[in-house]
Structure formats: C-alpha cells, structure tokens
Amino acid sequence: MLHETYEPVIGLEVHCQLQTESKLFSPEAAAYGAPPNTHVDPVSLGHPGTLPVLNETAVTHTLRMGLATHCSIAERSFFARKHYFYPDLPKGYQTSQYDTPLCYGGYLEIDADTDASGTNDTDSARPSRKRIGITRIHLEEDAGKSIHDQGEAHTLLDYNRCGVPLIEMVSEPDLRSPNEAYRYLQKVRQLVRWLGISNGNMEEGSLRCDANVSVRPKGQTGLGTRTELKNLNSIRNVERALEYEINRQIVARERGEAVQQQTLLWDADAQQTRTLRSKEEARDYRYLPDPDLPPVVVPEERVEALRDDLPEMPNARCHRFVDSLGLPPYDAEVLTEDRAVADYFEEALSSLFKRTKGGDTNAQAKEVANFVMGDVMQTLNETDHTPQTLPVTPRRLAQLVYLRLEDKVSSSGAQEVFSLMLDHTDASAGKIADDHNLIQISDRSHIEPVVTSVLNEHSDNVKQYLNGKDGLLGFFIGQVMRRIDGSPDPQLVRTLLTEHLDARSQNQ
Amino acid sequence: MSYSTFAEARAALSNDETSCEALVSSYLERIEARNDAVNAFLTVDRDGALNHARYLDSQLERGNDRPLAGLVLGVKDMIAIKNQALTCGSRMLEDFTSLYDAHVIEQLREAGAIFVGKTNCDEFGMGSSNETSYFGPVQHPEHEDYVPGGSSGGSAAAVADGMCHAALGTDTGGSVRQPAAFCGVVGLKPTYGRVSRYGLVSYASSFDTIGPMGRSVEDVALLLNALAGPDTRDATSAEVQVPDYTRALGRSVEGVRIGLPEEYFAEGLDPDIRRMIEAQVEQLRDQGAEVQSVSLPHTEYGIATYYVLATAEASSNLSRYDGVRYGHRADLETMQAAIKEEHEALHEQLGTAQSNGDAERVAQLQDQLDTQSDLLRALYVQSRTEGFGDEVKRRIMLGTYALSAGHYDKYYEKAQRVRTLIRHDFLQAFEDVDVLLTPATPTPAFQRGEKTADPLQMYLSDVYTVPANLAGVPGLSVPIGTHPDAPHLPVGAQLLAAPFDEAGLLHVGDALMKNVPA
C-alpha cells in the first residue's frame, strides 16, 4: 500500500467563539442567531471616533483554556492590528494578537492511534495517550459575515458576528493521521464545553478548523511542502478532507509532481478540495501593536487563582472514576464526555451513598452508571433537557437506584418508574413504584401457592418440559406473573418454578 | 454685549446683566458677519445653540447653575456630536453624521457649555496651516493672506476673531498649540490620557489629545476642569485625580524652577521670537523664578520619529474609510471606467510582453488582469482616491511603507525606541525643573501657499510642539505679543510640564500672560 510508505504530518488551527455576554471590545451583545445587523453599535461597526475596551471575561476564558492545556501564560501581552480590506471587516483591520499570545507552549492529550503499532489493544484497561503540542492560544475578534449567494452581483453583510471574541489555538504539527486530527478536535470541543467557555458547535461556526498538512516518506524527519485546508465545518469533514488531501499529495509525489504550497477550500458536497490562493498571493498584514489598547498584564496571582479554580479535567476525572469507583474504562469515558453529565452522575452517587451507608460501593457506582448511561442519557438525547433541568434530579435518581439495589423493583420496573418520574416530579421513586404496583413481590409465601396451582393446571406442559422442552419455562413464568397482583420479582418466580419443576422431575 | 473672555461673561451672567441666549445671539451675529471671510466654521448649529441657551437660562432662573453655563464653544470637526455632521475636513466624510456624542461633549454639555458649531481643520488633522481642508482654507483673522496654523486652525481663528468664547482643538503634533500661537490665543495640549479620546476621530492614536483653546488662561483652566478625568470607554484614559485647575491661577512664580531647553533656541528660530521669549524670561526671573538652562538631547530626532510613528498609526486608523458602510463611495460608472482603463493598459503591456516572449511578465500581467477586474477592489481604490486629499494620501503611503514586511524593524520599531529616549529626556529634565519654557513655533504665521509645495518645510513648523506628543507630556501655548515685523503677527511661548502637571503649566502661563502689555 502506498499509504504505508508515507506519513502525513498535520497541524490544526482551531478558532473557537467564546461565550461572553458582550463583544470583545464593545458593550454590544455577542448573541448568535439574531436577525441580521441587530447586534451592532458604533464601536463594533468601527465608526469614526470609537475606541475598543477589552472584555475581561474573554481574557479569563482564554487563560482558563491555556491553563487546561498546560500552557505558559504571558505576563504581558499585546493586541495587534492585522490589516486587510474586506467588506465584513469594518475597521480595515482585525484586532488580534501577534508576537505575544496570551498562552503558549502547552499540550493536549488524545488517545494514541491503536493501529499505529499494528496491535489492537482494545483489551487493555486504559488506552495509551499521545501528547499534541499547543504552540499558542491567542484572543482576537471575529469578522462579520458576507453572504454571497443572494442573487447575482449582490453580497449581503451581517455585522452581528463582528467583534465576537474568538480564541485561536494553534497545534504543533504533531498529528499523524486524519483520525488523530479527528480525536484532537473532539478533545478540544470537549474541553471548551467542559470549561464552559464555548458551545463548541461547528455547524453554527462557533468552532472552526483550518488544517496544515504535508506528507513525507516514513522514517524521514524533514517536512514536505504543506497545504492549508479551509472551510472544514464539521469534525467529520476535517477527517475526510485530510484523507482526501493526503491521498492527493501522495499521488502527486508518486507521479513525480511537486506539491504546491497553497490554500485549499474543502467542498463538502463534491468531497474534494479546490485552490483558494497560491503562496505568491500571500498577504502582508502589516501588523501594528494596537495603540488604543494597553498591554494585558496577567500577574502571577491571577494565574494561580485561575489555576486553583479550574474544574477537575475530563482525563483526571475519567481516571478517578476507574481507579476509585471501579468503573469500567468505557463507562468512565462516556460519563466524562460532558461535564454536566459527570456532575449529575457524581451527585446521584453521593446521594445514594447517604442511603446505603457502605456496602459494595463499586457495585453501587456501576448501578448508578448504568442508569445514567441508559435512561438518563437517552432522555437527554430525546428531549431538550440538560442534566441540570432533568425532572429526575440526581437525588431522585438515587432513590430509584436504591429501590433497585434493594430489589424492590425489577430492572424493567425501574425503567417504568424512571419514565413516570419524568412526569410526576413531586413524588419520590418509592411512592411512584408503589402507586403503580411496581414494587416487587419477593415474599416466597405469596408466590409459592400460585406456582403450585399453575403447574397443577398445566400438567401437560409440565410433562413436555420435563421431557426436555426447556422453552416452556418462560410460559410458566408468564402464567405466574399474570396471576399475581402487583410486581412479583421475576427472578424469584423463576427460582421457585425451577425448584418445583426439579422436585416433580425427581418424583417422576 | 460681547465680553472678551468667558470669565467676564460669567460675571455679567451672575449679575443678570446678560443671558445665555443674548450671549449666543451676539456670537451668532459675529459668525454671520465674519465666517464667509474667515471660513472658521464648517457648520453652525444656530437653533440647537439658541435652544440650549434658553434651556440654560430657565435653569439659571431656578438657581441651577453650572460651571460653564453660557460658555459659547466651537468644536473642531474631528469631535463627534450626536446627529451632527462629522467631516474631519475631508470629502470622505462630507455627508457623515455621528450617531453618538464624544465623552468630552457629554462632559461639557453637563457643565453648561453651548456648542455653536463645528470648526474647520486640516483634513483628519493632517496639516499645519489649515490648507488641507476639503472645505477650503481658514484665513488668519487679522491678515487675510496668512494662515491661522493647523490643524485646529478653525478653532484658533474662531476664538481670535470673537466668534465664540472658546473652542476645542485636537493636538497630535502641535495642532492646538501652533495655531493658538499663530492666532494669539491660549491653547492647551493636556497629558496623553488626561482627557478621554472617545469620540475624537483618530489620526494617530498614541499621540492624539483633545485640548481647549481660549482667550485667557483662566478660560482654558475652566474648560479643563470639565474635560479632564477617566472614561471607561477609552482604555488609554488615566485614573488620575482631577484638581480644580483654577486654583493654579493668580499665584506668584517665586521659587518656580523654569528650564530653557538649549535645543529649542538653536538654528532655525526667528531672532525676534528669541528676543521676545528672552524678555519674558527676564520678567519671570525678576518675579522670583529660578531659571536654568537644560538639555533635551534627542530633540533633533523628534520630527523624523513623529512622521514614522504617526503616519504608521494613521495608515491603520484610516483603513476604515473604504466606502462600504459610510463615507464617500465612488460612482459605479467611475469604477467601471477605471477598471476598463486599467484593463486596456494591462492588455497593451500584455501584448508587448507576449511579442517579447517574456513568459514571466505575461503570467504576472495575466494575474493582475484577474484581480484588476474585481469591482470590490475598484470600490476601495476609487472611493479612497476621490475621498482623501493629497496630504492624507501622502501620510497613508508613508505609514503603509513603514509597516510593510521588511521595513517594520528599520522604521517603526526603531522610531519606537527613539520615542522612549525622547520621553526619557523630558522625565529627566523634570527632575530639575518644574516647567520648560520654549518658543511655540520657529516663525510667526506664514503666508498661504508659502509651504504647500514643500511638505518637509511644513512639517518643520511643528518642530517645537511635536516632542511633547512623542513624550505624552502636557504643553501650553500662551500669546506673548506681536512680531515686530509687519504685519505684526502674534507670537506664542510654549510651556511644558511633567505628565499630569497641567496645574503647573496654567500657573506659569497665567503669570506669563499677565506680564504681556495689553
């Protein structure tokens, strides 16, 4: 295979819109989805005489992202003006950062390529990790939006997005496959959501990605000529565009053609790239330190306070779920994908621990995990609820899990109770189970007479069963269950039936 | 009914000898009579000024006094007043109306000032003679063939000619102090950061200041009381306490340490101006001031440093005028004609290159042809070509050059380092003296057209004022009499002080002016 003799080298440049009330340099709202040109003011439109004032929340968000990715924080950094003319850029320059980014020299950990070593280590408890270097994270303002496809010779301009804070996060060229790029982006998205600094939505454009990619023969350390890919508007598109582009570069090299340094656009419909501009057309942005904005000074104390204030990061939390709660790695991974889900899980668990006061805590954790990964996440997917707004609060879920652990409800009964709890928000799990006859009857003396009479009434079936037709056990269970008011414990019914049938077999 | 200073009008107002409305009316009459000749005002807000005057009179009747009630003020047309034209003396903004008030306008309105109109100025503040205004030059109030100085020439002329009590100017390299000296009025350039720039159209952001111009040091002090102070909308405004500046006035100069910077009395200074300054120095010495010579060794690099840094910032600040959202936009036909013309020229060159077999040139021209036909590019090029005047274009090009790849280190960065040295010179000098006394300009006002052909000569007329903008220190220009040569043009002295010591400037400036025979 050609691809086995070549190695791709990939670096990603991620732009991420920060969630702040106002824009980066003006008091105008930074809201998404409003009618065009309704979130504009003289400052964000760059009217004569207006001046920028830095939004401190955006700085804090950027610093938190930097700390979460192990970056160093610049004690003094500057904003710079990046000049180019375009109608959606009202000042003729974008206020960005140039040679002094707020954060630099960090890394992000992703799961290493499992197939890279040729071995499949899905069995191992924890996949090995790979560090992807973060060159820099800087803060800048977004431009407006040009809408070109509105009839010939017309371009519409929407300045709502103009001045919305963005972070630009540049990775080292450490990624070695489109799938690694895919996982890196997933990780970035998880992190910005985890920190609550962005919704990380690629479809809305709040997370955007450009990729630099080159190929080289395996074993070589120098870098090949790279191309830049733009317009990658979903994580899947990033992977596909990289696959396409890597293949294109390899084919070119095999044909003895040189790879041109250029910027390419990914056309998701055609599933191919096309040239946007060549190297010769590279722009001179004439960067100028912005004289309207004093340097951003971040004292050591602020860095330390922000560091102390960081939430437990997804990887650490995932490890803790495995190490101290005994959860399977898969469960821990799923539960820590979203911080609100992880919080929900932990709240439910601690509420449960208050009831159980000891016992097999690992089993209890696994039971809560099953509920969260099952009914809870299904409900979140199917409704508009978030973990915070779910009518089944963590405390109420703990009530339900407790009933289940005590065998007061069957597993199917528990599912039913859960869906009833979504509508009956004022009643406890126990009351709902009670009211709906879902409390399991696990009293032998209550069930045994029914077992006896069912077997007596179906002596033909009993005979067939004893002659090896095992499938009839289900029929007997169904008969018994139907005759008992309430919810007999199906496990107990099965056990009693088996006992009685065994006895009859010996009596034969 | 007209009073020479606002302080006098204020006294008359307190004694019920006049009203705000009467004051405004008398100034409107003067404007009516004189503005056609002087061209100091670009717009006059007759109704707005009279209405506000009546409102203030009714307030005064109820005992609601305000410190600047009745002050009739001209506002340089680089400062935004809501719903009023904001032209900056440029065709680019000929039809532009501001959507908001500058911070200083809010402050002054609150203090009782009445805005009578917007004053003429050099285009975007770029000029030293008021000859670069798209709306025609301003005439020196006393001598019709002479310039009033610039870029706040309209403000200086309006005050000198009695068309308003006082006016706001803006000073980036001397634009308040130089025209004040040429027209014989008092002009203050505050410390950078002392007065909010919010609503001042940027020319060179790290130099721009708003300053008051008046007929007395007292009027300027009264205005500064309202202008000074921090503003959350200007991140470069300073959180520094604002004193009552009028308390600096009427005090003796005994014990005040006055420095005379050698470099400001060197070659190029008009000998009569030198003698006039020296005479002032003698009087101050007699009154107990301690006068000493000091050195500001990097003065000679001031003009060069200023024109690298200020034009770099200007090229950036003026990028927003692109004809897309507001401001001048070229006609579609003009754009298409320009594209066609360029096309034809390129095709001609292409033909030549093809017949010469110059493949590289052919490819280059082909590429150019592709971008040249772009209507968007034509929109930018034509709108800016038509909208800006020559001096503005010259400075945009200078600044663009200084910031271009490969030039940045050589020009911009080097100039920044020199700027630091110049600032250091001043801070060093203010260890030993309280204020520096210098001529405001090397010559009195010159004739219209005298320096327009030679930009460098024009730039040198700011040689004494530019260093204060580089250093960010405050400066005050005070009239000290008229030049002995005919036609007896006014001459100004300049006082410079440490950052935020405007009170020190006003103190010495007041004493200086009182020494001048009326």
Automatic annotation (TrEMBL), chain A:
It catalyses: L-glutamyl-tRNA(Gln) + L-glutamine + ATP + H2O = L-glutaminyl-tRNA(Gln) + L-glutamate + ADP + phosphate + H(+); L-aspartyl-tRNA(Asn) + L-glutamine + ATP + H2O = L-asparaginyl-tRNA(Asn) + L-glutamate + ADP + phosphate + 2 H(+). The keyword Ligase applies. Keywords: ATP-binding, Ligase, Nucleotide-binding, Protein biosynthesis, Transferase. GO terms for biological process: glutaminyl-tRNAGln biosynthesis via transamidation; translation. Its EC number is 6.3.5.-. Residues 343-501 form the Asn/Gln amidotransferase domain. The keyword ATP-binding applies. GO terms for molecular function: asparaginyl-tRNA synthase (glutamine-hydrolyzing) activity; ATP binding; glutaminyl-tRNA synthase (glutamine-hydrolyzing) activity; transferase activity. Heterotrimer of A, B and C subunits. Belongs to the GatB/GatE family. GatB subfamily. NCBIfam families: gatB, PRK05477.1-2, PRK05477.1-4. Allows the formation of correctly charged Asn-tRNA(Asn) or Gln-tRNA(Gln) through the transamidation of misacylated Asp-tRNA(Asn) or Glu-tRNA(Gln) in organisms which lack either or both of asparaginyl-tRNA or glutaminyl-tRNA synthetases. The reaction takes place in the presence of glutamine and ATP through an activated phospho-Asp-tRNA(Asn) or phospho-Glu-tRNA(Gln). This is Aspartyl/glutamyl-tRNA(Asn/Gln) amidotransferase subunit B.
TrEMBL record, chain B:
The active site is at K76 (charge relay system), S151 (charge relay system), S175 (acyl-ester intermediate). Its EC number is 6.3.5.7. Residues 23-506 form the Amidase domain. GO terms for biological process: translation. Gene3D superfamilies: Amidase signature (AS) domain (3.90.1300.10). Pfam families: Amidase (PF01425). GO terms for molecular function: ATP binding; glutaminyl-tRNA synthase (glutamine-hydrolyzing) activity; transferase activity. One of its GO terms (cellular component) is glutamyl-tRNA(Gln) amidotransferase complex. Keywords: ATP-binding, Ligase, Nucleotide-binding, Protein biosynthesis, Transferase. It catalyses: L-glutamyl-tRNA(Gln) + L-glutamine + ATP + H2O = L-glutaminyl-tRNA(Gln) + L-glutamate + ADP + phosphate + H(+). PANTHER family: GLUTAMYL-TRNA(GLN) AMIDOTRANSFERASE SUBUNIT A, MITOCHONDRIAL, TRANSAMIDASE. Heterotrimer of A, B and C subunits. Belongs to the amidase family. GatA subfamily. Allows the formation of correctly charged Gln-tRNA(Gln) through the transamidation of misacylated Glu-tRNA(Gln) in organisms which lack glutaminyl-tRNA synthetase. The reaction takes place in the presence of glutamine and ATP through an activated gamma-phospho-Glu-tRNA(Gln). This is Glutamyl-tRNA(Gln) amidotransferase subunit A. It comes from Longimonas halophila.
